[in-house]
Amino acid sequence: MKNELDIKKEFEVLKKNLEQGKYQTVINECKKLLKIYKHEIFFNFLCVSYQNLGRLNEAISTMNDALKTNPKNSNFLNNLGLSYFKKIEYKEAEKYYYLGLKENENNLQLLNNLANLKRETYQIDIALDIFKKILSIQKDAISVHINLAGIYQGLNQKEKSKKHCIEVLKLNPEITLADRMLSQVSKYKKNDAHLVKMENKLKKKI
After folding, report:
1. How far apart are CA 63 and CA 124, in angstroms?
2. Is 86 exposed, middle or buried (0-12, 13-18, 19+ CB in 10 A)?
3. Does domain 139-206 have CATH number 1.20.120?
4. pTM for the whole structure
């Protein structure tokens, strides 16, 4: 049986391959490792690799096997929900997100995925409430600020959209998506500070 040091080494190798898009390599290695040691990391990496290759039924099968080892693991339930979400089976996805949140009500990944599902199914008020809950837990969640900016832009609530765009740029000035979204909800005067900053960013990239 592998010890924690061995698992850490395997984790670093698998993580690197995953980041490089070597999904089949990750799949092959995880399958070998799971025969030796059914560790959460290997189940999750295997599932994510299947998801990235669009092999969603295999991703679901992997998470069902994982849940046999730990039926209350919120990460397993999240990955299972996400696999169903990618299959556009929203009711099944929602079921597993809520089961995961029953085990860990402040799991940020589960909350974010559930909010995205609610947004996708036009339950905007619920999505807003969930995104706001995430920010109450983690104020610097950039992806949530971007999502809120997009929702408020769609609702034509420009000032609220602007507020979240500005927050994104405070957290990371290099996110050009926030610049673009901010420009869509702003009326610029000559030499406006944000307009000048955007122009300077573009000059640096040329």
Report:
1. 29
2. middle
3. no
4. 0.85
